[in-house]
Request: fold
Amino acid sequence: MSSPTTGVTDFQVTAKDDTPPVAPGANLENGDGADPDQNLRNRVFPLALAALGVVFGDIGTSPIYALRQCFYGLERVSPTPPNVFGILSLIIWALVLVVSVKYLLFVMRANNKGEGGIAALVALLNPWRSKRGSQRYVLMLLGLFGAALLYGDGSITPAISVLSAVEGLKVAAPGIEPYVIPVTVTILISLFLIQKKGTGGIGLFFGPLIGLWLLVLAALGIRGILLNPQILTAFDPIYAFRFFLDNRSSAFLVLGAVFLVVTGGEALYADMGHFGVKPIRLAWFGLVLPALLLNYLGQGALILGSRGDATQPFYDLAPSWAIYPLVALATMATVIASQAIISGAFSLTRQLVYLNQLPRVNITQTSSARQGQIYIGSVNWILMFATIGLVFGFKSSSALGSAYGVAVSGTMVITTVLAYFVARRFKWNKWLVLFLCTFFLIIDTSFFSANLFKVADGGWYPILAAILVFTVMTCWSRGRILLRQQLAEESESLDMLVKRIAQDQPYRIPGTAVFLTGDDMVPPRLLHHLDRHHVLQNCVLLVTVQTMGVPRVPATERLELYAVSPDIMRVIVKYGFMQGVNVPLALRLCHKLGLQFDIDNVTYYLGRETLIPSPDVVGMMQWRERLFAFLSRNALRATAYYQLPPEDVVELGFQVRI
Reply:
């Protein structure tokens, strides 16, 4: 695996040193600093409301299908009173221990300038200069595989969420069952089609709608609890222990269904950068957790009273007159949950592209006000076809529940492992961290092991999706290393360039030449240009774009300038992995640092390599080299990636054997 690069030939991107990329003032030892914006203290309540729509959509819609899956899914157990109390106890303590304690109180303390998620954990470990086979290198591979697992989740979540919501129509009108799949597919297609228009306007309604949804969950739950208040004793964890003693292997298998109640936990961590940890904690403990607990308890009380006849316990909680409004509200809530997952896939892809773990793709900014609102067409269409294929392939949310959980539970295991090493790197209390991570790892591996039994029934899909994405990432990253090594043999030092020009003066023409390079060597395309044309502009800029191991780099720290000779300057442009790259805009800042050149007369010289897989060159296996060559041919052109004006770009092509 390489150090992160931007994707241009021999264009290396590394942090300047091994200093952990943490926000000034962040204190990882005591967990402070997760809130990067000091003004958040004055905006906690509005941000908490906004977080409801983005952060809690996934976990907030789990009551539609999670408890039903425990008693009526493939891993079901009979709905006897001991089993009902036991499973409810497992659900309650899963929400408390996994989401509340692990993510909200522990893992969120490890953040990269306020950004969370598995990519942020990998960045905090700063593995980009690590040697292959080293501990950090292995942890980076583990983190990247965890990121790859999230793509499988990105297609399953919309399918199971929307399908489970539409299935509620069968409660009021059983004859409508043949239309469930067509209606679901229509909703999903509409959802993916609107992505390119941006979600800024719709997003204004996400928070209030999910807030209303959670209040309805709580109200329905209270209605069910009143039928059998004894259900409140399920808070006693002894019921969970008795459930395992009574059911043994069956109890272990049903853990895969119980896990569905916490599948949105990873999203809490990944989305913390949008709102800050305080608003997320306020929303969770103030509304989301109480609403979820009340609804699950209400469903449990209903199942006890129905003696197993409540096959749709969520919808059966509602009076008959409220079924259609509830289905409509549930559908809107699941669309919002799906939107959050799709947007998360866009954000994750952008991070991996900027860290050079995926090929360049076309990233469209859909909002001028919010940098996080982006659209990636290739990811959108792949997710759409995968999601629709899952609906047609599995045909019901119960069947999809067998595929759901493997990816998220695997990612949760990886998150715990990475969080341990991040905590140790930042000198947290050794024994406390070891105890907490061991405790969480026992829970996570239990859920993951139970979900592995779903592989034959559909769990193979997220694993296969993750393997495919991970293969692409490793081939692309390794291929970039080999390509840079091949091109480095044709490079020379900056001192040699100065001597070459002094000994054999090229013909000088007005204007500025910009050559993208990755280190302090002369890019081969500059040497090629001099050898062929013996012409050079009056001003030459050797520009290096560095994607740092932090989410964002302030504009005041964007540039570094180094004089190579009176007419040759090296310019280092720094971006965070959550920021878009715009080279022309960055070069305009050079004037403020005293570098004067004609910004309106700039020519950008880029290399366009034709890669030729060759068994004679020591590198990757032949099929991996062919895959890398294919990815390179289809990657976004550097002109578009760096937002260069096409009319000012000159591409120099040559062949490279890898």
Q: What stands out?
A: The longest strand covers residues 535-547. DSSP finds 26 helices and ten strands in the chain. Confidence is low (pLDDT under 50) at residues 1-38. The two ends are 16 Å apart (CA to CA).
